[in-house]
Amino acid sequence: MDPLEIASALARTPGTVRALTAGLPAEWLRRNDGPGTWSAYDVVGHLLNAEATNWQPRTRMILQHGSDRAFEPFDREAMLRWKPESINGILDRFQAAREAVVEELLALHLSPADLDRRGLHPEIGEVTLGELWATWVAHDLTHIGQIAEVLARRYRHAVGPWRVFMPALDRTADAE
Amino acid sequence: MDPLEIASALARTPGTVRALTAGLPAEWLRRNDGPGTWSAYDVVGHLLNAEATNWQPRTRMILQHGSDRAFEPFDREAMLRWKPESINGILDRFQAAREAVVEELLALHLSPADLDRRGLHPEIGEVTLGELWATWVAHDLTHIGQIAEVLARRYRHAVGPWRVFMPALDRTADAE
C-alpha cells in the first residue's frame, strides 16, 4: 500500500456512486429495508458526512498531534437528520469534497513510511495512518456494495421464484 | 414495473461496472476470497456471459414459445474457462452487448401486460417475463455489490482494528 494508490482509489468513488444513483426515481432511492436500515439516499449522505467529519479531520489529527489527542467520535447517522435534498446535490457535494481531500493528500507528499504514524481512536485505541486510509477505501467500497444491494431489494418480490438463487435479496442493509 | 423502467435500469449497469473496475491494478481485479469464489474480474465476465446466454435468449424464448419450451440451463461459471483478456476488453464487450439488447427490448414496444407472458425455467418451473426482467436488474445490482465487496476485502487486514466495524470484510464472494 502506498499513499498514491490510496489517493487513486479514493478519487474513483464519486463517479461510481453517481453511476449507481444519479437520476433514479425518488421512491427507489428512498427505499430502505425497514426501521433502522438505510436507503441508497441515506448511504450517499453518510459518505458525504464521513468526508467532512471523519476521514479528513482524523488524517489531520494524526499528522498534527499523533496519538496525543483522540479523534472526535464519528456520528454515523448524522445524515438522517439533514434537510432533504436532491440526490444530485448530495452527489455534487460529495464529489467536490472528495476532490479537495484527494488534492490535499497528494500535496502532503507522504512516503510509505508515513503510513506508520499513529493516532488514537476513541473506541478501538491506537491506529496508524495507513489503517485509517485503508479503512477509508474499504468503507467506500462496502457502502457502494450496500447501495447496490438495497437498490436490488426493490425487486425482492418481483423476481418471483428466482429469489431462491439470490441470497442478497434477503439480507438487510444494517447501518454499518 | 414497466418495460421502460426495466430498460432504463439495465442501461445504467455498464457505466457503473466500468467506474468500479476500469484501470484497477490486475492483482486487485484478480483477487478472490479463496477456492470456489469469484474475483471482480470474474464477476464482470459473468455479467457479459449472462448477457449472451441467459437474459436475451430467455426473453426471446418467452416471446416466441411461451412455456412450451424450457430455457437452456445457464452456465454461471463459463467465464472461468475463458482465455484471459484485459478488463477493458470485457467492459467494452459488455457495454456493446447491453446497448444492443436494450435497443432490442425497446423495439419490441411491449406493454406492462406483456410482463405476464410465461416461460419455463428448467429448475424453478413456470416464470413470467416480468420476473425474468426483474431478476435481470436485481442480478446486475447484486453483482455490482459483489464486485465492490470483493475489492474492499483486499484491505481486510490493512484496516487493522477497524475490522470489527466492517462485517462485509469477513464475508466471502460466493458464486451466486
Going by helix content, strand content and strand pairing, the class of chain A is: mainly alpha
Strand order of the largest sheet of chain A: 1-2
Radius of gyration of chain A: 18 Å
**Major beta-sheet overview of chain A:** 2 strands, antiparallel
Proportion of residues in extended strands of chain A: under 5%
CA(first)-CA(last) distance of chain A: 24 Å
Number of helices of chain A: 5
User: What is the quaternary state of this protein?
Assistant: homodimer
Helical fraction of chain A equals 40-55%
Low-confidence stretches of chain A: none
Tell me which protein chains meet in the greatest interface and how many residues each side has: A-B, 48 and 48 residues
**H and E order of chain A:** HHHHEEH
Number of separate strands of chain A: 2
**Shape field of chain A:** elongated
* pLDDT averaged residue by residue of chain A: 95
